[in-house]
Amino acid sequence: MSFLFNTYPLARAALFSLDAECAHELTLASLQKAYDCRLSRSLLSSRPEHRCTLMGLSFRNPVGLAAGLDKNGAHIDALGQLGFGFVEVGTVTPKPQSGNPKPRMFRLPRAQALINRLGFNNQGLDTFIANVQNSQWRSQGGILGLNIGKNAATPIDHAVDDYLLCLEGVYPHADYVTVNISSPNTQNLRALQGHDELASLLLPLQEKRKALADQHGRQVPMVVKIAPDLSTEQIDIIADLLPRYGVDGVIATNTTLSRDAVQGLPHANETGGLSGPPVHELSLQVIARLRQQLGASFAIIGVGGIVSGKQAQEKITAGANAIQLYTGLIYQGPALIAECVKSVGQITAAGA
Q1: What secondary structure does DSSP assign to 275-321, as a single string?
Q2: What's the domain count of the chain?
């Protein structure tokens, strides 16, 4: 384990003295500076291996970075060096947008949780693509997921136009594309998880992807990211529609609107999506139901509340093929990645 990873608890104490969003930006800037310097780059480097194949893609290991940490795809290589088998960046929207008013990110340390209402703040599709093109992660064997969404100003009944623009833009540069319909911070976005709305979105995306596959000579897997706040009936509807429209996988889950697990904690009543351990059980329930409905071969990526190898194992046991980290990194640091790779490796080896 590198010196940098072992000293993260000291850095965290300093970072937690800052506003959460300022600390987020400072962390990314510092990580990038360390990566850009050859002498310090080795302090970042971790390459835990547990090879797996998912959606026809070969992963160095099944532990990935969840979307949202690097919305503009500006730090792909630096983040990849921390030991991830795959990195997902975004969510990107066609046009730049500033997101919701600040403050809009809040820590709940007693629950190792975060609440955010960022609202797809990003620099837009053109900048995003340029950043992705400048990265070396894919050429070094890393898997890159590009996460797409809609602009806040786009009416929900025209959302498909934004998704189609983004799909066309990111397609040549992605190993897989994630269609994000589950952020609680863009008005009405979660309505796209309904039967008719989802079918009306997936059909044109499926047709566009077929055309892009012909144009570029390769089929890029497409996955859909869903919310934890779904009824069994809603999960079953999604499970029915995804394979019907050629979707290759599902990411379960995004942040939750529930506050049941954090009642009484400072900031618990802030609006936005709650992430961290309070989402873990909700995510497990969604994953288990999806696996039951989708069968053994459909790709499921589990995310939400992983702060230890134990929770990573629980995601796999529930039915996930791979996992993603975000809030756990904020609280545990990059050593969590290798811990999760080891834990997932143990459980998959035991089941082999």
Answers
A1: ESGGGHHHHHHHHHHHHHHH-SSSEEEEES---SHHHHHHHHHHT-S
A2: 1
Position 40 scores a pLDDT of 78
Does residue 9 lie in a domain region?
no
CATH of residue 160: 3.20.20.70
- Rounded to an integer, what distance in angstroms lies between the CA atom of residue 97 and that of residue 122? 6
Residue 33 maps to a domain: no
Residue 134 lies in a domain: yes
Distances (CA, A) of 39 to 27, 34, 76, 122: 19, 8, 19, 31
Q: What is the mean pLDDT of the chain?
A: 94
Position 289 pLDDT exceeds 90: yes
Taking Cα atoms as reference points, which of 14, 138, 118, 5 lies closest to residue 70?
118
> What amino acid positions are annotated as catalytic residues?
183
As a whole number of angstroms, the distance between CA 297 and CA 295 comes to 6
**Which residues have C-beta within 8 Å of that of residue 306, sequence separation ≥ 6?**
280, 312, 315, 323, 325, 328, 336, 340
Output phi, psi for 148, to 5 deg: -120, 150
pLDDT at 23: 94
pLDDT at 1 over 70: no
Give the pLDDT confidence of 102-117 residue by residue, as tens digits.
Answer: 999 999 999 999 999 9
Q: How far apart are the first and last CA of the chain?
A: 28
Give me the domain span that covers residue 319: 48-351
Task: Tell me how far apart the alpha carbons of residues 120 and 151 are, in angstroms, rounded to a whole number.
Answer: 8
At 94, list the tokens.
């066609």
Neighbours of 49 (CB within 10 A): 11
Give the pLDDT confidence score for residue 51 in this predicted structure.
93
- Is residue 24 a part of any domain in this protein? no
